[in-house]
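Go through this chain for my students:
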Amino acid sequence: MAALTLEGVGFAAGSSRILQKIDMSLAEGEFLALVGPSGCGKSSLLRLIAGFERATVGQIRLEERVVSGPGLHLDPEDREIGMVFQSYALWPHMDVAGNVGYGLKVRRMPTAQRNTRVAEALATVGLSGFEGRRVQNLSGGQRQRVALARCLAMKPRLLLLDEPLANLDAHLREAMVEEFRRLHRATGVSIVYVTHDQAEAMALADRIGVMSAGQLL
């Protein structure tokens, strides 16, 4: 069964056609990288999958469940998808545990269960013992791991990564590439990974999709 299927998906903003007839599938547990120049539609495609934007045409399915189609648009919180942004999007006034457990708290998960899930997610990304740290006191690589842990704590069916290494220096990027490989082996989660760096995509992905001018080539 495919973890993700897109059929004829297009997206327009006003008179601008941003994505055109995207057909794509992602196998269960697969790591797919999308590469292409800035402005080609990679991030817009992730936002459609996540539900932050509404597709103009076409259908998006998660496993057998239709989440986007004619007359249908499921909200992001109902799609069981985790997304890591280039900017990390962490809450600066919260400590690490607060950030990682925020989505679980919104879901009203009991405190003891939430604490266990947070600890498990932090252990997965190598940040056990960081629960009480303030995020503004962390390095870029550590913040990226916190953002990953926040997604993993929600146990998503699909993980979307939008140029997650773009703000890191070369040494940290290399270390995080290995971290992503380890994390994928450990969790088996299905991943769609957006990057403009072909070497990064080659190092990580099972399969690579090339995008240009709003099309998946």
Q: What stands out?
A: The mean pLDDT is 91. The longest helix spans residues 170-187. The first strand starts at residue 2 and ends at 13. The helical segments are 42-50, 96-106, 111-124, 140-153, 170-187, 198-204.
